[in-house]
Design brief:
Order of helices and strands: HHHHHHHHHHHHHHHHHHHHHH
Bound molecules: fe (ii) ion
Number of domains: 2
Helix content: 55-70%
Number of helices: 22
Largest sheet: none
CATH architecture of the largest domain: Orthogonal Bundle
Strand content: under 5%
CATH class of the largest domain: Mainly Alpha
CATH topology of the largest domain: Hypothetical protein af1432
Structural class: mainly alpha
Radius of gyration: 29 Å
Number of strands: 0
Shape: elongated
Length: 501
């Protein structure tokens, strides 16, 4: 399409693209309302599960009255403590309605499941699956605290056997612990088997300590404990895609899948726009390192970087990285149309992302990596070729929105840095450092980082990480000063041998 389109076709095709929708901002009042609603729904559901349960907890509520007040007070204090824990240590989860809704849903479901199965056998529980799922969608600490709270509550309200408490506590701790790296679904299967194996041994050892003599009962309990671990892994693997789409969240499994070069969009980009593909990989390395440096989501940033320029596949030859040995297409069209073609790669990218069903969190990287920045080269060219007053700056700007997250802001900086450093023919460390500094300063001055939650300390760390990665990437190309020049600068005579040895 790129080579054959004439000016009119170009204009017509670009004008057909859908405008980008503005970012929906979290209005504080509605955010609070949603959070309170999740709190109330969780409280009421858990209260009624325990109060009306056919399981063992029911015997506490035969006399009604005071037991209900006790249950209400207990739930209120545990839920408030957990909310305060999130607020103090993991604000990102308390401010995410989707994460809160998922935690609430899984907690209610687990308590309901346990109430139904505890009367049959307290050793077959949903608790390992609960801990695994919370671990996958949040982190180790949140999973540990929440699953221990649910385990203790289940035990206190539904069972009197201290061995049950011990086994279930080991289950959830092991489930959270054994999922240290979550990149493949087989990691979950391994975690399930670990839980089954270790829990079975713990149960046998506890029964031996307490002198259990009924061998048949012991065998049944051990089988149920073992089944619980495997069942939890199977349920977790099976429910992940549904939970991801139901709550609009993305797991590291899905992210790892998206980095596979066999993904149709990446494969196409490799063929249609190889220069852009290379650029995306380098930007991915830069952005991932910077995200790690400031404790942002490194894998998410890498995936966002890999897909940020997919829109360039529509007209690859209009972008410098794909122009090797090909006539510059911009020489045939006006600067105004050039700017339109360049900025339209964002809209084309969003359309492709929708067509190939990229998750919305990845799609966000496409418009945000340019924010509302100016296509300065063609803006200045237009000013020279047209009447200056006819050239409106806004027509030469990307449609936005500006980066809203740390991850998208990092991508904006990595993208611009990679392009600028690539343009230096013989880069020196000093030049690379100055280029990074200039790019960050220019983006701040242009207000592009105004809506992203980055601090100055973060920006310093990002810039250091960029320098570190670029130095190693361009090592062979980096121009080091000659020994003679260094000695001259130092005011000394050259010595024998190379000082870089
Ligand atoms: Fe781009
Ligand atoms: Fe880019």
């Amino acid at each position: 399409m790129s080579i054959v389109e004439n000016e009119n076709q170009l204009l017509e095709n670009i004008s057909k693209l859908e405008p980008i929708k503005p970012v929906k901002r979290n209005i504080l009042a509605s955010h609070l309302l949603h959070k309170s609603l999740i709190f109330i729904v969780s409280f009421v559901s858990i209260f009624f599960i325990y109060a009306l349960s056919p399981g063992q907890s029911n015997h506490y509520f035969k006399d009604g009255g005071l037991s209900y007040i006790g249950l209400g007070l207990y739930l209120m204090i545990v839920m408030t403590l957990f909310t305060l824990f999130l607020k103090k240590f993991w604000v990102s989860y308390i401010s995410s309605i989707r994460h809160l809704a998922l935690m609430s849903f899984l907690t209610i479901f687990t308590i309901l499941f346990n109430e139904l199965t505890f009367s049959f056998s307290p050793y077959f529980s949903f608790l390992p699956a609960f801990a695994m799922l919370i671990r996958i969608f949040t982190n180790f600490q949140v999973s540990l605290v929440l699953s221990i709270a649910v385990t203790i509550s289940s035990y206190m309200l539904s069972s009197n056997d201290v061995t049950v408490l011990a086994i279930n506590l080991f289950s959830v701790v092991l489930s959270s612990f054994s999922l240290t790296k979550i990149q493949q679904r087989s990691d979950l299967a391994k975690a399930g088997l670990t839980v089954s194996f270790v829990d079975s041994i713990i149960l046998v050892s506890l029964k031996l300590i307490t002198g259990a003599t009924d061998l048949n009962k012991l065998m049944l309990d051990v089988s149920l404990v073992a089944a619980s671990g495997v069942f939890s892994a199977i349920i977790s693997i099976g429910s992940l895609p549904y939970l991801e789409s139901l709550f609009g969240l993305i797991t590291s499994f899905k992210l790892a899948e998206l980095t596979n070069p066999n993904q149709p969009l990446l494969k196409q980009m490799m063929i249609k726009a190889p220069g852009t593909y290379q650029h995306s990989l380098i930007v991915g390395n830069l952005a991932e390192a910077a995200a790690e440096g400031i404790n942002a989501d490194a894998l998410l940033t890498r995936v966002g970087a890999m897909y940020h320029d997919i829109g360039k596949m529509v007209r690859p030859y209009f972008f410098i990285e794909n122009q090797l040995g090909i006539e510059n297409q911009h020489s045939k069209i006006s600067p105004r149309l050039s700017a339109l073609v360049i900025t339209s790669h964002v809209k084309e990218g969003i359309e492709l992302a929708k067509e190939y069903k990229l998750p919305s969190i990845i799609r966000d990287f496409i418009p945000m990596h340019h924010g509302t920045s100016l296509v300065a080269y063609f803006y200045h060219q237009a000013k020279q070729t047209e009447k200056s007053e006819d050239v409106v700056e806004a027509h030469f700007r990307y449609p936005g929105p500006k980066p809203q997250t740390k991850e998208t802001a990092i991508l904006m900086l990595a993208d611009a840095t990679e392009a600028a450093v690539r343009a230096i023919s013989k880069p020196t460390v000093d030049q690379i450092q100055k280029t990074i500094g200039k790019i960050i300063k220019a983006r701040i001055d242009d207000g592009q980082l105004a809506e992203a939650p980055l601090t100055l300390v973060d920006l310093e760390k990002i810039s250091n990480e960029f320098l570190r990665i670029l130095q190693s990437l361009y090592h062979s190309r980096i121009e080091y000063p000659s020994e003679e020049k260094i000695m001259k600068d130092l005011g000394r005579k050259p010595q024998n041998g190379n000082i870089f040895k």
